[in-house]
Amino acid sequence: MKDTLALEGPILGKEETTQLTMNSSPDMTSDSIEIIAPFDGRGITTALFDFDGTLSRERDGWINLMVATNAAAMASSLPDVPISEIFDWTINDIEQTIGIPTFQQMKRLAEAIRSRAGIALSPQRYKDVYNTALVAMVKSVHRQVELGQRPIEDLRVSGAIELLSALAEKLGHHALFLASGTDIEPVKESVQRLGFGPFFEDRIIASGFNGQFDDCPKLQIINQLVRERQLGPGQLLTFGDGVPEIEYTVRTGGIAVGVLTPDQSHYKFRGHFTLENKRQRLIRAGAHVLVSDFREARKLINLLFTDQKSLARPEKIS
After folding, report:
1. Closest of 156, 197, 123 to residue 57, by C-alpha
2. Is the dihedral of CA 185, 190, 195, 196 positive or negative?
3. Could you please report the per-residue DSSP string of 74-139?
């Protein structure tokens, strides 16, 4: 058995991070690929993908929906709390918890209401309200595609198919896995609709419901993958736009690629959900590489499967 590493609990946020300036050749990096920390990718055997915001743009705009539904829920239970305070808490909480399952976010909402002496509904009820709005939004997007008002490519992160094809060619289809914080059936349907089905088949793990993964779902998903495939350091490669999958991958000794897809939000003018905020979150989580999308899939693959440890020159960033 290989020397495997697994985590046993949640990870605390880091106070600071180190950015590593790489002395790589000009053809190895570009405006859409940024090396943050050293890594050795020569031993990669398995690739794990987050879904929303990493491969799919189908649910872009979910932030606006969740802010609206959660703020409305809090306002109805706490009529004496100023609406500005409610929106401030809601926006901050959602931004801080991007990447965790929806059910966990709704647990936090219910707890916040109770902590202010309000009467909260169940987390599942809050999730149902949000999901109803989300399903309606996604159906509208699908309808636009069906009517020819927008191409299906708009719903995929640029270059996603090319990246998956290149990884399947290098590792084999059986080595590609997908993990999502959304309920399993909508994820499976979206995977097929967007053309990702042949790359993942039944290797889809959704953590959004049924209590299978209660506390740290991305942690448990990664642990399960490490255990079942007997992965050692440097063998797991993860792509994600959220902190959990990046942070937990790094802690297992894996290699993490942060995906800097922009989040559609009405609150950027307030300094929330900006691309720079996401970039800093992913750097603090430990991302080795940042990409804006996968348009340079072949170049990215060539970079990831090489030894980048000897090219690092550490430099502190704020």
Report:
1. 156
2. negative
3. HHHH-TTS-HHHHHHHHHHHHHHTTTS-HHHHHHHHHHHHHHTTPPP--HHHHHHHHHHHHHHHHH
Query: What pLDDT score does 12 carry?
Result: 30
Domains of the chain, CATH where assigned: 18-57+156-316 (3.40.50.1000), 62-146 (no CATH)
Over residues 18-71, the pLDDT tens digits come to: 333 333 333 334 568 999 999 999 999 999 999 999 999 999 999 999 999 999
Q: Lowest-confidence range among 13-22, 127-136, 271-280?
A: 13-22
CA dist 197 to 173, 194, 201, 233, 293, Å?
A: 11, 8, 5, 28, 20
Q: How many CB atoms lie within 10 A of CB 132?
A: 12
53 close to 261: Cβ distance less than 8 angstroms: yes
User: What percentage of the chain's residues is helix, strand, coil (to nearest 5)?
Assistant: 45, 15, 40
- How many Å apart are CA 276 and CA 62, to the nearest integer? 19
Question: How far is 245 from 222, CA to CA, in rounded Å?
Answer: 8
Locus of tokens 């980048």: 308
Q: What are the tens digits of pLDDT across the range 173-219?
A: 899 999 987 778 888 999 999 999 999 999 998 765 444 445 567 88
Answer whether 109's CB lies under 8 Å from 121's CB: no
Instruction: State both tokens at 176.
Output: 């590609």
Residues contacting 142, CB < 8 A, separation 6+: 193
Instruction: For residue 44, give the nearest of 243, 308, 306 by alpha carbon.
Output: 306
DSSP state for residue 23 in the 8-state scheme: -
Contact 284, 13 (CB under 8 A): yes
Please, where are the H alpha helices in the chain? Answer: 62-77, 83-96, 102-115, 123-146, 160-171, 184-193, 197-200, 217-228, 243-251, 275-285, 297-304
